Each structure stands twice: as structure tokens, then as C-alpha cells.
Amino acid sequence: MPARQPAGRLKSSNGCFTCRKRRKKCDECKPRCAGCARNKLKCEWPALSLKSREEKNTLSTTSDSDGSQITSKPKSSPSFNDDSTKIGHLRSAVYGIPGIKTSIDHYLCLYFRERFMTRVLRANAHPAFHDTKHLVMIGAKASISMRAFLATAAMHASWTNPKLRRVAVRYYNAIVTDLRKRIGDGKAKGGEDWLLLTTNFLLLFEINQGWNTNHNPAGAAPHLDGLAHILKIRIANDSKQPQTYVHPQDRTSAESFVLWASCLSLFYSDIDRVGETIDWNDLSLYLDHDVFPGVSKQSNSPLLASDWKLHWMIFEITVLSHKIPLDSSSAMRGHDLELELDLREKDIRKNIKNSTYQPQAWEILQQTLIYILVAQIIIFKTIRPEASANHPQIQQIVAEVMTIVRGVEIGPETRCLPSFCWPLAIVACAVSTKDDVSALRELLKRVWLRTYCGEVQRVRKAVEVFWEKAGTEENGGKFNLLDALICPGGMFKHPFLEKEEGKVLSEIER
């Protein structure tokens, strides 16, 4: 069989896509070059490619194993290594955007827009929150932001394509180095849009990684603290003038801070320090005003949907759980928070009873009730460290939560946020029956398959360790499963996890 002849060099480096694909010389005449006109071919140019592809939706789609869609080459998926790889017509969809240089960049930009961002925000949030044009505009002007988008996309994609993990870490290290230099040179004052977005996506990078490698032992804490500093500066600037409008990115960033501070503090006590960086009351400037007047509060909330002050309470409760035994002032604050949760529970039950069934509103009410109930488990254990999962009040709460979560349906089209695993992690440390364990194991698996988020996998690994240890003789007595909620370093710093994590990870991945 004769050897295949190598393809010749492109005849034009600045010509239209059609001539470049045909490897013909292009006279670069716009809007239609002579070669395309002569051969009656469609003439496409880099500057027009993204717009035309978006408007006409000409790229094909394929479904991955969990049912979600991603733009891809027809009937095949591109293979990647740590170097740039040609991906056929995938290149043209984002060709011409500053910062998109290699074929891997092109693929990750598409992945970011069509796969990752579609999983970050609530499905019922206002459509403008889902529009990525603003992000692309910022990324086109600030290459460091674009690299943060690509790094986060690569880390998320690496759970199904491990070859991209090195790409993700390489991007990440370059971003952190560049960011430190800019701060050192005085080029970052603290209130810039590019800095806000870059920090937010570095936070998402760590959440998608899950703190389960030696890449960055500090994890998400520095980025969450940095986000608090940036929000503090922006709020100080914006509060100097009457606030009649909240920009979507300010609302999204403020909700991102509130959401991840309240969720991650349970797992890592390093997060506790962000409560000292910013006065949470100041966040009301971005969180108490509507971004889009005339629509519901739920539509104005890209991430939370429920009252942001409930998440503030949850953050306070988890901070207290790291301070066992409590001093007198902390114990008093704990009892106050317990009473506030009881009042919130009564209010939400009244709203549920009086509400007419509308799927979106009902889902938010049920989610809020779950958050309140699991927060009651933590504060109960924090105030009464000797309590176990067999306590009648704990069992009553667990029974109601499990009734709700058993009714949760997570299908191919479900928009399931990684933060949903936070209440599941808490109730997993309070269950006492094999049926409940099996139900939670299956639900966490479905959440993982819908999110492919490292933090969700981290929760799965942790609760498997705790379930294995529950009922076994350890340190002179049986392991109290509920004790995992009051570990001084956070749930994921429990000594059992350091011993067993590697073994459980291999079992889960099998």
C-alpha cells in the first residue's frame, strides 16, 4: 500500500475558511472572494464565523453518557492530549476570539459555553443570566479572564476526559502567576470586572476539582476570601450613589459568595475566615434589589432562589460547629440561631400549606424546607455534642428529609446544582437505616452524573467512609456518625478520611 502523501501547506493564512479548507489560494476579497464566487461556494470569514454559527446553529450535537448535549464533530468525539490537536470544523465556531489560540482552546471555549455554563445557574433564572456574551466580551478584553474560563471548563471536562486535567492545571498555574504579578504591579485595584470574574471562576475551578489532589492544598478558601474582598470594594464604590440598578454579574457574584461560603464551610473550616472579610449586611446592596424589575424573585436569583439570609444563618451555624466545646457567648448565639430556624420552619410550612401547586414555586419551597431541617440537625448537634443519630428529634427530622429527597427526580434534563449535595451530606451523617443509606447513595450518584463536579465526588467518598465506620468498634467504642458534623477542621478533615479516601475512591470509580 503506497504511503499517504502529507497534506500541503495552506495557500493562505488570512483567507476565507472555504479556501483554507480546500487548500486554495484566496485573494482575501470580502465579503466573497473570487475563488468562492467562481466555484459557487459559500464564503465564510473568521470574523463572521461565531455569529453565523450561533444564529444558524449549524454545528451538530451528540449526547454523552448522562444525556446532556455538547457541540462536537459529527459521529465522533475529538481526542486530546496535552498539546494542540486539530478538531476539524470545531475550530471555526470560535475562531477569531482573542485568547483562543489552539484547537484545545477552541474546544474548551465551546465546552464552557454549551456544556459548563448550562450547569452552573438555576434553570429558572432569568434568561439574561444565562447569556454568556458578557463573559466572552470580558474574556476578549482580558486574556486572564478567558484563561480562567478555559481552565474551569478543562477541569470540569477532565472528569470524563482525564487527559484534560494537566491542561486545566497548566492554565490555572499561569493564571495565578499572572494575577499575583498584576496585583504586585498595581494593575489590579480590586473593583475591576475582569478581576471579579477571574476570581469567581478560580473558585469554581477548585469546587470542580474537589480538593482531592495535591495541586492546591489551600483549595477554594483563598479565592472565596478574594471574592469577598472584591465585593467589599465594589459595594463601597456603588454605595456612594443611589442604587437603582444591579448588574447581573454583581448579583451572580454576591450569590456565588453566599452559596459557597455557606456550603463549603461545613466541609472545610478554612472557609470560616471569609466571614471576617466582609460584613454580610453590606451584601444587601446586590441581593435585596431586583436585577430585572417586573419578574419574580426566583427569576432574579441565578443561584439561590431561597432567602440569602438563610444561607448567612447556615454559615454562622457551621462556624460554631468548628468551635466545640462552645464558650458561653457562642452557646448563647447557638440557642438564638436554633430559635430563628424554628421560626423560619413555621413560616415555610405555612407558605407550603397556603400555596397553590406550581412546579417552580413548590420546588423552591421544598428546597428551602430541606435547608432549614438539615441546619437544625447541625445546630442541635453543636449545642448538644453528646447527641447521636438515634436521638428522637434527629430521627424525626431525618424521616421528613428522606421523604422529600426520595421524591426528587434527576433525569437527563434536570439542572442539578452541585450545592444540592450539601444537605445530602448532612443527612447522610444522621441516617440510621440501610434503606436510607441506599437511597442517599443512589441519589448522590445521580447528582454526580448530572454535575461531574469534584465537590460532589468528594461528598460521595466521605459519606462512604463514615457509613463504613458507623457501627464498628473504634477508639474504645462505636463511631457516632453524627460526630462527623462537628469536626474542628470541617467534615472533610476528619481523621477517618485521611486513612480511607484512596480505597473508597477506587471502589466508587469502579
Characterise the protein shown here.
Helix 15 (308-321) runs parallel beside helix 17 (359-383) and helix 20 (434-451) runs antiparallel to helix 21. A two-stranded antiparallel ribbon has the order 1-2. Strands 3-4 form a two-stranded antiparallel sheet. The protein is 58% helix and 2% strand. By secondary structure, it is mostly helical. Mean pLDDT is 82; it is low at 1-11, 47-93, 473-477 and 504-510. The two termini are 42 Å apart. The protein is globular, with a radius of gyration of 25 Å. It has helices at 17-22, 34-39, 46-56, 90-93, 103-120, 127-130, 133-141, 143-157, 164-184, 193-209, 221-238, 248-267, 274-277, 284-287, 308-321, 328-354, 359-383, 392-406, 421-428, 434-451, 454-469, 495-509, and strands spanning 61-63, 69-71, 473-474, 477-478.
List the defining traits of the structure above.
510 residues, mainly alpha, two-stranded antiparallel ribbon, 22 helices, 58% helix, disordered N terminus, disordered C terminus
In a nutshell, what does this entry contain?
The protein is mainly alpha-helical. The protein has helices spanning 17-22, 34-39, 46-56, 90-93, 103-120, 127-130, 133-141, 143-157, 164-184, 193-209, 221-238, 248-267, 274-277, 284-287, 308-321, 328-354, 359-383, 392-406, 421-428, 434-451, 454-469, 495-509; strands at residues 61-63, 69-71, 473-474, 477-478.
| N- and C-termini, Cα separation | 42 Å
Main β-sheet description: 2 strands, antiparallel
What fraction of residues sit in β-strands? under 5%
C-alpha Rg, in Å? 25 Å
Q: What is the H/E string?
A: HHHEEHHHHHHHHHHHHHHHHHHEEH
Total beta strands: 4
What value does the average pLDDT take? Answer: 82
Shape: globular
